Amino acid sequence: MQVAVTAETLTGGDEHPAEVVGAGLIDAESARRLAGQTREWDRLFVDPVARTPVEVDTYRPTAAMAKLLKARDQHCRFPGCRLAAIRCEIDHTRDHALGGHTHLANLAHLCQRHHSMKQFTRWQVRQLGGGVLEWTSPGGRIYREDVPIPAVCFTTDTVSARAGGPPDPAAEPPGASDPPGPIGGHRGESPPF
After folding, report:
1. pLDDT at 108 over 50
2. How far apart are CA 79 and CA 102, in angstroms?
3. CB of 111 within 8 A of CB of 76?
4. CA 152, CA 58: separation in Å to the nearest integer?
């Protein structure tokens, strides 16, 4: 049985309901009673704003964490490697056996080759925050592997937004009526490669 309960509710700091995952809500007192009867705990830390898991006590990240990491990383995070994240392993930047937490800020996708290289050679990596990795080669050269641009981005209609009204779904996208430039783009744009 999996019960999702806040630390405040568990310690009696509030009376918010807890959730029996897959079944529904239960009152705070029932959650505290269940917690008192269990012998094993796996804590899951959830971002209170985004309501997404960010850390667990276990070695393996949750499915939700793996999904977020896959969306964030998109590919192996070694500089220049573009093997898709679905073909990579989730690696603890600071080794779990040496105290590294299973936290989004300590996890990244590495292909098997670069995962092994990180473990068995003098290449070093550290996370700078926001998913940005900094690699140091055996010769001391530093490489920064920035978070890739998300595959899906949402934007607002700036013309309607400036006018104070809702976006016009029938309006052409900006630049749609411009004649194409020399490489299939619009004038003044750089090529898409």
Report:
1. yes
2. 23
3. yes
4. 31
